[in-house]
Amino acid sequence: MKKLLLLLPLLTLAAASLAQVKKSTPNVILIFMDDMGYGDLGVTGALQYHTPVLDALANNGLRFTDFTVPQAVCSASRSALLTGNYPNRMGIQGAYMPNAGLGLAPDEYTLAELMQDQGYTTQMIGKWHLGNEPQFLPTNQGFSAYFGLPYSNDMWPVEFDGTPAKKDSPYAKYPALPLLRMKAGQVVPDTVQIIETLDDQAALTGLYTDKAVDFIRENRKSPFFLYLAHSMTHVPIAASAAFKGQSEQGVFGDVMMEVDHAIGRIISELKKHDLEENTLVIFTSDNGPWLNFGNHNGSSGGFREGKGASWEGGVRVPCIISWPAKIHEPIVNNNLVSSMDIFATIAEILGNPKTPHKIDGISFLKQLGDPMAAADRKSLYYYYNRNDLEAVRFENWKLVFPHTYRSYEDVLPGNDGFPGKYNHKQVEAMELYDLRRDPAERYNVIQQHPQVLEKLLEIADEARNDLGDNLQKQEGKNRRPVGRIIRGEEK
């Protein structure tokens, strides 16, 4: 009995220690929208539909107002999110076509691998778009299981009106669009379904959410990481029967209301198992809206241009974070933050375990609990195409370099699922914008701020020395090769 009494304090201490470890290692749910713009939520000004779940998360958690992706396009943006690196550092560019033989290199270290190495169960649900060949799929990048589409939902042999592609159509080149299921150790994924119609597309948000809820329930007793990458609001958009006609804005509003409801189901599942307090939920988007699709896409919230451009409408996206155990009061944070910083933040939460590569992300952990915390990130590079340095940022200042870009201005958008035409414009000489006073990037003040220009040119030189710049014919010292399949092998 005496030995037992002596052991009791030790057992109590051990139990307290385990409880503390569990408290300090939150579950993580990372929700990544597709082509959802800055202005597409109620809290950022959306009209004619409501997003009460996301608005409540924002009003009770943290909302970043200056959250930026390093490239405003699908594959590049996703690679940055999952690795904490500039996409061009890893040879990633653009949006990969099906069977391109390219993908995120297997030796890149992902957020899923980081968390798996720390004992987390990991799953990816939704749009992958970092290489659709088996060697590049999520289960070879740290995820224990995968359910979703291998690339964008418009990469299918179907016309804009939902009918099968005609022989002379550019969409006829696409293979069938597969909904995949895969577990770690599988060589080839299972095809659950071929997505053939707009009704099939309409079911995706619900299917992804069903899988997410199942994952939370099945892993409620141990730390988990869920990466949920919705196919919506990338065209073609479609809402399920329960949400058709529910908004005043039409199909896009219906889709947003369904997404909001779906996230409500995830939050409800967390509450059901008493997991909400210590679950870090991050909600954001891969880039701004695809504006030439008119009423079938969203709003950049007044920022300039949209998807596919280095102007703010392309790269600035909503970001909402909920973690009640850490964020005790509502915070609206106006500091510069990048999607690359999510990796660094979670790494710090986990004690900064050693990673194979130095990352470009900068942790914003201290900003989660302190509304007055100073900015961690001061600068950012804006690359596009293969390796074009189109702009650099320092604090509230943005310097834009001469380049040609795809524009949505001075042309009419399309409607009802059909795209309008693009315009193409040229930045003829360097332009400087003060994003504090001019977030829409309309007033070039380069002549008024020579010292600011000098500082930004120094940052550009650092970028070119590190990563190169095709516009200046510089290679850069620290770029790694993209994953590439040659004769059936990844290289």
UniProtKB/TrEMBL annotation:
Span list, region Disordered: 468-491
Biased composition range(s): Basic and acidic residues: 468-478
Alphabetized GO MF terms: arylsulfatase activity; metal ion binding
Coiled coil: none
Annotated signal peptide: 1-19
Entry keyword set: Calcium, Hydrolase, Metal-binding, Signal
Pfam families, per the entry: Sulfatase, Sulfatase_C
Positions of the Sulfatase N-terminal domain: 26-351
Family: Belongs to the sulfatase family.
PANTHER family noted in UniProt: ARYLSULFATASE FAMILY MEMBER, ENDO-4-O-SULFATASE
Entry protein name: Arylsulfatase
